[in-house]
Amino acid sequence: DQQVKQNSPSLSVQEGRISILNCDYTNSMFDYFLWYKKYPAEGPTFLISISSIKDKNEDGRFTVFLNKSAKHLSLHIVPSQPGDSAVYFCAASAWGNTGKLIFGQGTTLQVKP
Amino acid sequence: DSGVTQTPKHLITATGQRVTLRCSPRSGDLSVYWYQQSLDQGLQFLIQYYNGEERAKGNILERFSAQQFPDLHSELNLSSLELGDSALYFCASSVSGLAGVIETQYFGPGTRLLVL
Questions:
Q1: Structure confidence by residue, pLDDT tens digits, A60-96
Q2: In chain B, what's the furthest Cα-to-Cα distance?
């Protein structure tokens, strides 16, 4: 039972354009969502998060949108840069639970110069 | 650099053996989490410790165990190793990890385990 799903294993975007990474979840108890970026041979690096009381959070080039009714969130990167090429993981946790994170399978983003 | 350290970086061992993975959390963080990433898989939560006590368990095998010491570092023990245990093992830490507290987890670089 995969509670957090990233249905696109990979995404290729031209430098300077927008990258949109998607994530769907099934558990309505999730109330905190995070995006992590992972380079090969490194641990996941925290990128941006959003709590369920918001529908948008922005940090520089990165914006996360949350649609609770659709149980869907997306990460927008504008403009995309070659250094953004990495695997992006969506993760979720539930308020009443511990800090346990449930991760999606990841999306590999390639930004072409 | 997240401030979370893990040793060793790589580990090669044989089936049936036992290994210990070590994690030091960020300074001030009380919770430690262990995750497993198998080939082509997302990160799977194994177990969480808070200030020395087990807080939550995921799909951790009975052959695996963990503990958190008074200095807050944690060890993940994997025994009777099987080929399928080959994976990346990540440790993460957060300030508290308590229910009702929204906070970010910071990950270490991971230990790559290869069981031959």
A1: 999 999 999 999 999 999 999 999 999 999 999 886 6
A2: 42
DSSP 8-state secondary structure symbol assigned to residue B99: T
The helix or strand, by DSSP H or E, that contains position A93, with its residue range, turns out to be strand A86-94
Of A99 and A19, more confident: A19
Phi-psi label, residue A41: left if phi above 0, alpha if psi -120 to 50, beta otherwise: left
- Determine if the peptide bond prior to A44 is cis (ω within 30°): no
Chain A residue closest in CA terms to B57:
A100
Residues of B in contact with A34 (CB under 8 A): 104-105
**Residue A106 vs residues A109, B40, B63, B76, B106: alpha-carbon distances, Å:** 9, 9, 27, 25, 17
- Gap from A61 CA to chain B (nearest CA, Å): 20
Closest by alpha carbon to A72, among A86, A52, A88, A58? A52
- Min mean pLDDT across A68-72, B8-12, B34-38, B99-103 is at B99-103
